[in-house]
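Q: Could you predict the 3D structure of FUN14 domain-containing protein 2?
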Amino acid sequence: VRDPDRKREALDLAEFTRRQPWWRKLFGPESGPSAEKYSAATQLAVGGVTGWCTGLVFRKVGKLAATALGGGFFLLQLASHTGYIRVDWQRLEKDVKKAKAQLKIHRGRQMPTEVGSKAEEALSFVKKNVPVAAGFLGGFLLGLAS
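A: Sure. Here are the predicted structure tokens for FUN14 domain-containing protein 2:
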């Protein structure tokens, strides 16, 4: 049985995470610059709103790109069937084989250092700003769905 007159204590998430060793082990000693400045609710809200806007833009641009690509393919097929365009199938096959050979050569190589450093930078940002990143991901998915 709970006492209704008992005062409830508010939990300061920034202070809580600062005192927890598991947080530092999981997200590293550099985690939390925004957690020290803003509340978790503010970070989630900012991340959610920016994620939702980004998801909405991605959805609109994606529809536009799909329509343009599909329309262009349709027009090329129509032009090919009516005789306006002739396809040199032997040359196309030769070029495809050449591209396959290039892909086999590059398959064994390591990822370029620029890509690796950008991935590490993004991972570091997410570790430092977990609430913002979580809010952004949720908002992004909602923006894509709406």
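Q: Anything worth pointing out?
A: The mean pLDDT is 79.
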